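Bench log, entry 3. Co-assembly request; chain sequences pasted below exactly as received.
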Amino acid sequence: MKIESTTLRTFTSVHTWVGLVAGFALFVAFYAGAITVFHHELMLWQAPQAASQAEGSIDDAQRLLDETLKRHPASRQWVGMLFPGAESPQPVIYWPDEKAVWHYATLDNLQGSDKPPQAGLSELVNALHFSLGIPVAGTYLMGVVSLLYGVALLSGLLIHLPSLLKDLFALRPGRNLKRFWQDAHNVIGVLSLPMHLMFAITGAMLCLVMVAAVALNPLIYDGKVMEAIGPAMDTAPPTQPAGTPAAMGTLAHWQARAQDVAREQGLSEFEPAYLKLVHAGDRNATVEITGESPRSLGPLGSVALNAHTGELLATQLPGTRDANHGTLASAYALHFGEYGNVWVRWLYFVLGVGGAFLFYSGNLLWIESRRKRRQVQQGRAQVGMAKATVGICIGVCVAISLAFVAATLLEGFAVAHGWNVDAGIQWVCFLSWAACALWAVIRPVAKAARELLWAAALATAAVPIAHGAATGWWWWTSAAQGQWVLFGIDATALALAFGFALLARASARRALHGDPHSVWAEPQPIR
Amino acid sequence: MWARALAGIVAGFFLAAGVVGLIAWAWPGPWQSTLVGSALAFFPAWMLAATGSFLFTDGKRAWLWMGSLAAASFALLWLLRSLQWVA
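Structure output for the full assembly:
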């Protein structure tokens, strides 16, 4: 394909600048996102005593529902509950109060709290993923970053289009390092393009869908979008309370009923995940059971029942649901990797780390293509970019690993000393990230890169050691007892630590023996 | 560069909205039944428009073309709706 050279130049600068602006946030989003793929496993890893604890039963869930409805009148309007299972071994119930503040309760804490239980480590990593850990505004910021990411992907594809097929499998190591990095950047970008486009689009949607709905409402939705959102996303038709109290069915009854309905629609499996109950205790109370049916791109479907009579009101199940529910379930499942089995999630992990590399290599390419080839002293912009890349990107890797270490150590002390584990993990994470960034600012950049990579290697290697020391679950104990989740996290941490160590050694070699005319060269003492 | 970027962001927003609106209304069934799909499709449409604006040689052309196309798409949507060809 032939593209004019001026067009190519324009798109190269678009790609460069959009990539640089969004690249730092995207590195964090991808590195944290790759880990967030295993957020259920992280909860177990942080508190492995739950591993030996039995999963809650449907009777436990019933008791929690009854107690919550009795104690908290606001919950009778609208209440949601996680069934004990994969998402959370114990049932968790949540509802908004009169001021629209969310409350969460468990059997251990019937009074409820405004923080979800078991948050801690997995919640922190997830927050880094979707908002960089910045409350409220961070989500919108990441929405904008997703849009820029889309533009960077499209412009990058366009630049590379003329030589895309020819260079697809070219990875040319050798004297021309820029060529090598460029090849690596291109091959990862092209091979994972479908995944990147999917993340750019679903990421933008998840962060900005309400903003877009409000903006598009007068333009194309005739000012009626708010009325249309309910039917597009809920299963149960909207109902008004009748005003007459009536006894409700039991959870076990609803669950069996939903499974029967699913079976009638040809789904052999329907594993309830969560429910929504409105107007509890009223004759018109409706309950919506959402459950998972495997072998569907959008595995979550739901069945709406009258909570009093058990009468079937509506269904939105894989295979028979309408376009809105089918699109929504698939978009969610695609973004979160919640379809297929554990291999899909490993694939997402690998692609996520690969994505982080893509953004990192983009920054390296920017620095490399502006390198002054005949002098040791490099431009201030290049040095600044190198410092920012090292400080923020490697810094977040150090910070996340230290958050893991802090989580497992604090979890042990928390019970004994009444410490706030979540706050502790957050402090460790953000302070160490800031310290890494500062280190990159004050040290010569070649030294900072090497030292921060060693710090990342050590911090990540400390993850399984701290876990073993604090909980007794060493990776060999986990393997011997068949706790593959715990073993998997420890083994992945060791593998990543090894990877960071290799990178640290490579940077050291490059700094001492590579081309001295570069920001990555160690400043040599003048003899 | 900046003029084209701005054209892509602002005029591109309206162009993406107009095109997605046309498809949503012309699609069989009421637009409400494909609301999630059309809201989702708006994001790649906007990304395409914002990238595509750099295909123009300068900002004025980008504004002119994308602005007129956006206006044309809304005019067409309005026409189709007043003729009741779409609902």
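Chain B has a mean pLDDT of 93. Residues 2-26 of chain B form the longest helix (25 residues).
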